[in-house]
Amino acid sequence: HGMRRVAAALEGSLLLPYVYSTNDRFLVEVAPSLLRVLSVEGDVVASLPSVWTAADVAALRHKQVNSMLFLACPTHELMVLKRDDEGMFSLAPYGGMRSSGIFRCA
Q1: Which of 73, 76, 78, 92 is in the most buried spot, having the most CB atoms within 10 Å?
Q2: What letter would DSSP give residue 100?
Q3: How high does pLDDT run on average in the chain?
């Protein structure tokens, strides 16, 4: 038991859980350079361009609602990571809302 190495970490990254279903669980790695979705075995399932700076990543807050993972920080618009029925991931702004109006970021 204990911890298992799944992938080489990106510099300045943050790992977040993402549960699509009881059988489909992932780790989301957010870094200034890239957003990666990793399987529990450590395979890279998706790589998407990051929209955050290193300071943004340090202040990032998250909340998952169904298949949407909301990602918020005080200096950037609210972003949402989604997985569609075909298993494809996408990262996009959520309705033009500022993160500060939705989540309190410390």
Answers
A1: 73
A2: G
A3: 85
